[in-house]
Amino acid sequence: AQSVTQLGSHVSVSEGALVLLRCNYSSSVPPYLFWYVQYPNQGLQLLLKYTSAATLVKGINGFEAEFKKSETSFHLTKPSAHMSDAAEYFCAVRVDTGRRALTFGSGTRLQVQP
Amino acid sequence: EPEVTQTPSHQVTQMGQEVILRCVPISNHLYFYWYRQILGQKVEFLVSFYNNEISEKSEIFDDQFSVERPDGSNFTLKIRSTKLEDSAMYFCASSEFGGPAETQYFGPGTRLLVL
Q1: Region of residue A100 (phi > 0: left; psi between -120 and 50: alpha; otherwise: beta)
Q2: Going by DSSP bridges, is the β-strand pair A24-26/A3-5 parallel, antiparallel, or unpaired?
Q3: Mutate to test the interface with B, among A35, A44, A88 (most CBs of B within 10 A)
Q4: Nearest CB to B43; choose among A42, A90, A96
Q5: pLDDT given at position A93
């Protein structure tokens, strides 16, 4: 079965600083990986996804993530944090075994300090 | 941009009561899903639905839960006899064809509180 681990339930950065949110996955077959963001009182919005086309994936709002098979990681980065990036971020995995369920990590709450 | 909508945004109910959570998926999507997130815990998959039947369900989705597409636009989750531990945020999602690389589009959620 697949699983996702997000290291750090809370991350705090200063405005303009690098954002790094960690995600490690476990899967016995090639995974599809997703990052979703949840702003307060809103639903989950897709930031980006890895579908095996390219290991470096660019998403919305300046975020990107790199799939590293050797490290079983899919960390989310943004070079310069904005106040508007404050939200909860979820990493999720899915595999092509006929199952359609996304398996989510526990989430990381990002705080951006002025 | 098309979006998934859910009603109500909040629901408070007494233990043992039935609740129905409603969702309107994106109109050309064929697969529908329910997930839930108990406060402080992970988002968990409950069920997926295609062609008017359940295509996959988790161990959480027991006999007290049911799903239905009563008309061409709504998708509902019914909890027959609510328990305290059913208190959670319930998310509806939809995807176009259900493929593994496809994006699932989520609604804003319904926060259910069982007293």
Answers
A1: alpha
A2: antiparallel
A3: A44
A4: A90
A5: 93
Is residue B64 left, alpha or beta, with left meaning phi > 0 and alpha meaning psi from -120 to 50?
Answer: alpha
- Look at the block and give the residue holding tokens 């790094």: A20
Q: Give the integer Cα–Cα distance in Å for A27 and B31.
A: 24
Mean pLDDT of each 10-residue bin along chain A, 114 residues long:
90 97 91 92 90 90 95 97 96 84 94 96
Burial code of B72-105, b = ≥16 C-beta within 10 A, e = fewer? eeebbbebeebeeebbbbbbbbbbeebebebbbb
Q: Which chain B positions have a beta carbon within 8 Å of A94's beta carbon?
A: 100-101
Q: Does B34 touch chain A (CB under 8 A)?
A: no
Check CB contact of B55 with chain A, cutoff 8 Å. Answer: yes
- Both tokens of residue A104? 């989510």
Q: In whole angstroms, give the CA distance from residue B44 to residue B101.
A: 19
Structure tokens at A38: 């949840």
Of B42, B101, B108, which is closest to A106 when you measure between CB atoms? Answer: B42
In this predicted structure, what is the pLDDT of residue A42? 81
